[in-house]
Amino acid sequence: MDVQACKAKGIYLSNTPGAVDDATATTALYLLISTLRQYSIAERSLRALTWKPAGLNKRARDVTGKTIAILGLGGIGKRLATLVHAFPMRVIYHSRNKDPEAPAYCEYFANVEHMLAQADILSLHVPLKAETVGLVGEKWIRKLKPGAIIINTARGKVIDEEAMIRALEDGHLGAVGLDVFPNEPEVNPRLLEFPQVTLLPHMGTENNETQRRMEVRALTNVRDFLTTGAGKDLVVELKSKAPVKAD
Q: What total number of domains does the chain contain?
């Protein structure tokens, strides 16, 4: 959505905050476990009736004790932090500002590159804006530990896909887990060449309960706008001004 164009024309624009947090975070958790343990390779091997792939134990890694860097500690990032803390994993994060409501076990890094240098896994939870296109590019990818993993359940374009593929080719990245792609539903065929990559067709919110929560929240916004003249869930870019009033 072109939020600024809506704002210029006085158009009310809302979203459904919170409704997708759990489903998207559990999708990220699945991708994290699959890439660390290499379950995607194992499943494909079983389906091909070749049982267990040789040498998989040398490539797979345990989840417990790893350090996850969360880029963008919003609702989804916080929910993921809660989930991975159970293993436990060390949770570090970067947002525009330190979050006073972040759990005590979440360590804030003002410097992104210092955070990346300590990460076994980088999980992306930033919105797609002009300034975040290609945000995770060559420089940031190379700041990650050798063999690190990137998980993306945000938007495909926040990663420089070519830089990510180069890092997979030369082994700097151990794996990636992707639920989103730059030009959906098209998927770069080069990603299919890497057996250690786990790919999903944008499944983050694809479940019955989450879809219902999204629908109810959206319809509640419409009802509130029609009955009171203003809804509660203005997108953040519009919160600097009073809500658009109904005629």
A: 2
Same domain, 127 and 236: no
Asked if residue 165 and residue 210 are part of one domain, the reply reads no
CA distance linking residue 21 with residue 77, whole number of Å: 8
What does the pLDDT read at residue 117?
Answer: 98
For residue 174, what is the enclosing H or E element? strand 173-178
Residues 16 and 121 occupy one common structural domain: no
Rounded to whole angstroms, the Cα distance separating 133 from 122 reads 17
pTM: 0.92
Q: Do 145 and 5 touch, CB atoms closer than 8 A?
A: no
96 and 159 in a single domain? The answer is: yes
**Residues 126-139 pLDDT 10s:** 999 899 999 999 99
β-bridge mates for residue 93, sequence order: 70, 108
Cα distance between residue 234 and residue 242, in whole Å: 10
The amino acid sitting at 93 is Y
DSSP of 94-107: E-SS--TTS-TTEE
Instruction: Give the active site residues.
Output: 155, 184, 202
Reported as a single tens digit per residue, the pLDDT across 18-60 is 999 999 999 999 999 999 999 999 999 999 999 999 999 999 9
